C-alpha cells in the first residue's frame, strides 16, 4: 500500500507526478473554474480533471493544429512534474507536457509565458494508441481449457485468469465459447431432467 498525503481535490496537481510521469487519454474538455480556463477530463484520470494554464492550452493548439475541443478527444498526453515552474515570483513547481499523440516528430513552439517574454517548448511524439499489454504468463491456455473439462467454475476461473494475464483475444474468445457451450449443455440437461 502506498502511504502518501491524501488531498481532497478534483484536479491533478504537480505533487501527483512527484514519482513519475503519467500518460492520459483525453475524454473531453469543458469550461473551467477560477483555477483554470478549461477542465480536461481524462479517461485514466481517476475522477480528477487536468486544469492546464493558458500557455499549455496554446501549446496543445499549436502542436495539434486545432482549437476545436472535439479534436482533443481520444488524443493522449504525457504529464510530468517540473520543479522549476514559476507562479508569480514563487517557484512551487507545476505540471508540464512532455509528449502528445498525433504528431509525427518532436515539435518546438514559441509560447508567450509572461508579458513581453516568450519561451520555447518542445513536445515529443507519443504513440497514438496505448500499447496493448501482452501475455507474459507462459501459460498454455488451450491445454488448461481442456483440463477444465465440463466444470463451469473452472472454465470461468480460467477466463478471469486469462483476461488478467492479457491473453490474446482469440484465446479469451475460445474460453468464453467453451463456457457458453458447457453452460448451455448444463441448462439443457437440467430442463431434460425436469421433464
In words, what does this structure look like?
This protein has helices spanning 54-64, 69-72, 141-148, 152-164, 169-194, and strands at 22-33, 36-42, 49-50, 76-82, 94-100, 107-114, 117-125. The chain folds into 2 domains: 14-125, no CATH class; 141-194. A 7-stranded mixed sheet has the order 3-2-1-4-5-7-6. It has 195 residues and is an alpha+beta fold. The chain is elongated, with a radius of gyration of 24 Å.
Main features:
195 residues, alpha+beta, 2 domains, seven-stranded mixed beta sheet
Task: Give the topology.
Blueprint: E1 22-33, E2 36-42, E3 49-50, H1 54-64, H2 69-72, E4 76-82, E5 94-100, E6 107-114, E7 117-125, H3 141-148, H4 152-164, H5 169-194
Parallel strand pairs: 5-7
Antiparallel strand pairs: 1-2, 1-4, 2-3, 4-5, 6-7
Q: How would you sum up this structure in a few lines?
A:
This protein has 195 residues and is of the alpha+beta class.
Ranges where pLDDT stays below 50 over 5 or more residues in a row are none
**What composes the largest sheet?**
7 strands, mixed
Major beta sheet, strand line-up: 3-2-1-4-5-7-6
Rg computed from alpha carbons, rounded to a whole number of angstroms: 24 Å
N-to-C CA distance: 55 Å
Average pLDDT rating: 85
Helix content: 25-40%
Q: Structural class, from secondary structure content?
A: alpha+beta
Tally of strands: 7
Strand content: 25-35%
Morphology: elongated
| Element-by-element helix/strand order | EEEHHEEEEHHH
Amino acid at each position: 500500500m502506498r502511504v502518501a498525503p491524501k488531498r481532497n481535490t478534483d484536479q491533478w496537481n504537480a505533487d501527483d507526478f512527484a514519482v513519475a510521469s503519467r500518460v492520459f487519454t483525453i475524454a473531453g474538455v469543458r469550461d473551467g473554474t477560477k483555477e483554470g480556463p478549461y477542465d480536461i477530463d481524462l479517461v485514466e484520470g481517476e475522477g480528477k480533471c487536468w486544469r492546464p494554464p493558458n500557455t499549455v492550452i496554446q501549446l496543445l493548439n499549436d502542436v495539434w493544429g486545432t482549437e476545436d475541443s472535439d479534436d482533443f478527444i481520444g488524443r493522449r498526453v504525457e504529464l510530468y512534474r517540473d520543479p522549476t515552474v514559476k507562479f508569480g515570483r514563487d517557484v512551487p513547481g507545476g505540471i508540464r507536457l512532455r509528449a502528445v499523440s498525433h504528431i509525427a516528430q518532436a515539435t518546438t513552439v514559441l509560447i508567450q509565458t509572461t508579458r513581453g517574454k516568450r519561451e520555447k517548448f518542445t513536445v515529443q511524439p507519443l504513440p497514438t494508441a496505448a500499447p496493448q499489454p501482452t501475455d507474459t504468463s507462459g501459460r498454455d491456455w488451450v491445454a488448461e481449457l481442456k483440463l477444465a473439462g465440463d466444470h463451469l467454475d473452472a472454465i470461468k476461473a480460467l477466463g478471469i485468469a486469462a483476461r488478467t494475464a492479457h491473453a490474446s483475444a482469440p484465446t479469451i474468445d475460445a474460453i468464453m465459447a467453451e463456457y457458453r457451450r458447457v453452460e448451455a449443455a448444463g441448462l439443457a440437461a437440467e430442463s431434460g431432467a425436469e421433464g
